[in-house]
Amino acid sequence: MGQIQDLRCVTCGSSYDPQTVEYTCPNCGPRLGTLEVHYDYAAIGRQFDRDAFAAQSDASMWRYLPLLPIESEEYIQPLRVGWTPVYQFPALARELGLSQLYVKDDGRNPTASYKDRASSVVVIKAQEKGKAVVTCASTGNAASSLSGFAAATPLETVIFVPQTAPEAKVAQLLVYGARVFLVKGSYDVAYDLAAQAAEAYDWYNRSAAVNPYLV
Ligand SMILES: [Zn+2]
Q1: What does the pLDDT average to over 187-209?
Q2: Which of 29-33, 86-90, 156-160 has the lowest mean pLDDT?
Q3: Mean pLDDT calculated for residue range 72-76
Q4: Chain centroid to CA 36: how far?
Q5: Which of 31, 43, 141, 173 is close enough to 113 for a disulfide, judged by CB 3.0 to 4.6 Å?
């Protein structure tokens, strides 16, 4: 907890205080200025080692809490995410000429998607930052995952989808209680609208392209 040191730009290396910069490097812009979360690894190393993680009994991704960008444990949702099973497939391994092959069943996550790991983090970050609304543009699993996780919190969800999105995907968003805008345009148009709305209304943007905590 509280182990985040700074946010660092992958292009120019500038370091930022997470309290002052929200998404991308102001020098490099949204296209190149992806920020990575840097932790105080020395402090973490003094508290935890490989055996401590292995001995953890929590069967979810929260067993790795000291290495996740979370400041407030109180916002962790009761939904169980991560630590999904792996299965061996010897016959397929033989066919592919591999000595071993494992398939990880991320369909066991709450909304049946690996995106649930990122969504569970983002709804915590949104609450830590005092936001009331989370948003994203998506044609698929990212939006349903965000809507599902936000439904377990007091957050409201607004999703922008191209109007060509499959009906079943839109239905899933509505079942989770999201407010959905069908955009007359491509995914790129929906993406820009979500970013502009987040900026104008102080919503939290789940876009994995700009949000450092999803990287
Ligand atoms: Zn930069």
Answers
A1: 94
A2: 29-33
A3: 92
A4: 14
A5: 141
Whats the size of the chain, residue-wise?
Answer: 215
Distance 28 CA to ligand 1 centre (A): 4
Give the DSSP H or E segment for 94.
helix 90-95
Q: 17 C-alpha to center of ligand 1: Å?
A: 13
Q: How far apart are the first and last CA of the chain?
A: 18
30 token code pair: 């949204």
The one-letter code for the residue type at 14 is: S
Task: Name the one residue in this structure whose structure tokens are 């490097």.
Answer: 25
Q: In Å, what is the CA distance from 11 to each residue of 20, 24, 28, 116?
A: 19, 11, 7, 28
Q: Tokens 């989770």 identify what position?
A: 176
pLDDT at 2: 62
Categorize the per-residue pLDDT at 52 as very low, low, confident or very high, splitting at 50, 70 and 90.
Answer: confident
Distance 181 CA to ligand 1 centre (A): 33
